[in-house]
Design brief:
The protein is an alpha/beta fold. It has helices at residues 2-15, 30-41, 56-64, 85-92, 113-125, 166-169, 184-197, 205-217, 219-243, 269-272; strands spanning 24-27, 47-52, 68-73, 75-77, 80-82, 97-101, 129-133, 159-163, 177-180. The longest helix has 25 residues, at 219-243.
């Protein structure tokens, strides 16, 4: 109860999102959760859509699970990235899963309420389930605010969230993450796989404790860290603008990753490496 309530309480307090404690399950890592959910929610050779540029493990986790990767290239405009919804709808027509990163890694976009509603309505129309990796949710450094995917459960019930406090609190080595699965059938199958097949019954007590303390007593730390990162991004932005005219960079909405555009540099990628 202490573990689950720390997570539901955090989402309610920080993101005004209600969820039931029963929906929360322990998992050793977010990518383990994503990998298992892909297997539980789709069949081999099914198409899985995800945005590009993307965290490299998203591509491999799809292909290594014998699913077909469908890459949606985000449109680069005004120093930011946008979804081409017309093209996306065509890609969703014969897919079974959409793998979302929210906020997005690496370009740092926080998807707006309008974008998320549009994405969900297209997925609902075509019967595509959504797995949302929200590990960067606390690191909001721009003006836009993050909305957890489960805020939209009233609109579509095939939504599955995986996250962890490990990025926010820098505790990945303590091992521990969670999934929030409103669908009881999938929840039961997730538990059967982790406990009975993979024997992940023993939770890392350090990771669990870090989550409970982090999500109940560390709001001030999170707020200060975000402020610190915001200033780091401002310094990087100013330095690049002044010293490195071949590069361009705009501080992202979220994440601690500075996604710098180096396409105007007169060297190939290999030469730069």
């Amino acid at each position: 109860h202490d573990f689950k309530s720390s997570i539901t309480g955090f989402f309610k307090r920080r993101f005004d999102t209600d969820m039931e404690e029963d929906w929360v399950l322990y998992s050793p890592s977010v990518m383990y959760s994503v990998s298992l959910l892909i297997r539980l929610l789709s069949e081999p050779k099914d198409k899985v859509v995800t945005f590009n540029p993307m965290y490299d493990s998203f591509f491999t986790v799809i292909e290594d699970n014998d699913r077909i990767l469908v890459s949606h290239d985000l449109k680069h405009e005004n120093g930011s990235f946008a979804i081409d919804f017309e093209e996306l709808e065509e890609q969703l027509e014969d897919a079974s899963l959409f793998l979302l990163c929210s906020p997005h890694n690496p370009c740092g976009r926080i998807w707006s309420d309008e974008e998320l509603r549009m994405l969900i309505s297209l997925c609902r129309k075509h019967g595509v389930k959504i797995i949302s990796d929200e590990i960067h949710m606390d690191i909001q450094i721009g003006k836009r605010r993050h909305t957890p995917i489960l805020k939209y459960l009233d609109e579509y019930d095939q939504l599955y969230l995986a996250s962890s406090c490990s990025k926010t609190l820098n505790v990945p080595g303590l091992i521990g993450s969670y999934v929030i699965l409103p669908d009881k059938t999938i929840r039961d199958r997730f538990l059967f796989q982790t406990r009975k097949k993979d024997f992940l019954n023993s939770v890392s007590i350090f990771g669990m404790y870090a989550t409970m303390v982090g999500y109940t007593k560390c709001d001030d730390y999170i707020d200060q860290m975000v402020e610190y990162l915001r200033e780091n991004m401002r310094i990087v932005e100013a330095f690049i603008a002044k010293e490195l005219p071949d590069l361009s960079f705009q501080a992202p909405d979220a994440t601690y990753l500075a996604w710098i555009d180096a396409r105007r540099v007169p060297f190939t990628s290999e030469q730069m490496q």
